[in-house]
Amino acid sequence: MSDGLVERLAAIAAELAGEGAVASRAKLISRRADDPVVSVGDVVVKAHAGDAESTALEARVAAAAAPETRSILAAPLPMPGYVRVELGRLVTAWPRGVPVDPENPDSAPWIDAARLLARLHRIDLAALELGLPPCGAPDRVVRAVDRARALPPSAEREAVERAFETLPPWARSSDTPPPHDRPLTLVHGDFHLGQLVLLEGAWCFIDVDDLGRGDPAWDLARPAAWFIAGIIAPETWWGFVHAYVEAGGIAVDDARDPWRCLEPHARALTVQCGALALSAAAGAQRALDELETTWIELCARIGSM
Fold it and tell me: Which of 64, 133, 124 is nearest to 92 (CA)?
């Protein structure tokens, strides 16, 4: 990570935070060393991935600033302009919210998340008129598998690769459109509870890096995969699905049987989780833990179908 880049982000955050804000009090809140995120007071400034494409990011950030997404997506802060370049990196600024408490899973706002997703998926794409790119969900799957493929050969890696080969073409590339019988909506592209924050007393989504046009089932795929893996309880999953459908969500047409619409997307996220599990264990030079082993076992089952 470039210390110079972190210093620039801190200076921008302090300037936006206003009187009394000091860059030296900045907090580094990113979990990824190469893509720093810095906060000062109520302002967060983010350096996006080095390969982020400016036109796509500008469209995504503009969507978050649009009236249609107000109270669904956190709105960017002008610097002026919503995207600027610092030391060769694209940079954006956002209000700082209160994240979901990872130590208190019983308080996780699954119902609020479901209703927000339903609202997001009902937004008229044509009304935005922003030239949004495809959502980044399929490419996230591919990147995870590519990283796993770079690891030494193993039965676990083979399980991930074989499971990946079962995915339909549209789940392996954002350039391949979804089936014609599926809705095309505004999609977050990387939904999980870490993408929710409380702002002014209400939950909203953050992180627009994968926002775009796509099948809304992608936004339900990770919770579905987590349910299959036993990470979330049945009552949590079914409450989430029913709340989504009752709020007008269109990713599934029957809350009692969502799998007809979600199965391939949940399968893709299972493969992604399996690939990430391999990379995480290899990076830490340790054996797979219990949850990571579950993902690999699920991939093995998928690959044997």
Answer: 64
